[in-house]
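Per reviewer request, we include the raw input and output of the structure prediction for the construct analysed in the revised manuscript.
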Amino acid sequence: MEITTLDALFEHELKDIYDAEKRLTKALPKMAKKAETEELRGLFEEHLQVTNQQIQRLEQIFELIEVKPKAKPCAGMKGLVEEGEEIMGAEMEGDLRDLAIAGAARKVETYEITAYRSLQAMAELLGDQEVQDLIDETLREEEEAEQRLTAICDQLLQNASGEEEEEDEESIDEEDDEDLTMEDEEEEEEINEDEAVPAGPRTPGKQPGRK
């Protein structure tokens, strides 16, 4: 595909992010289903609705630039979604699973934010204020979602760290108990040895009827 003008590049990138958002509408329900914490699950469910609105905005932009809405396969989002599915299929549970899923979602948001900032810069150069406004609205939503994901990740990281510390303390306590038990057994053996009276030499007595 030959791209020789800024308009053509804008159209190319618009089709790319259009495909990315459509892929995300299929991935978000799966992520919500796998999430265990209510806050993370709620964020995914809410962002699904937001993503559908963003797709509608993209279609408005297509209309404004007089181009038929069409998705161009987005290799970047395809790879991120596949990576997220791999993480969701891994043997993890609790906060650790949610931390991994939230981390994968943050990668998606970073990708989208970069894409919309690029579109925003091109729209500004092209001088279409209405297109800029639509992109700005979506960009704000993506930045807000990324901030919320970051906060959730920080909390999950603290929870996971606290659980590991508790496990380490329990392991130390178990080792201390084993050491104390061994010491008690050794002390008991020493006491038993001290209390045992050794048998002395036997003194032969006189046999009856003998002088």
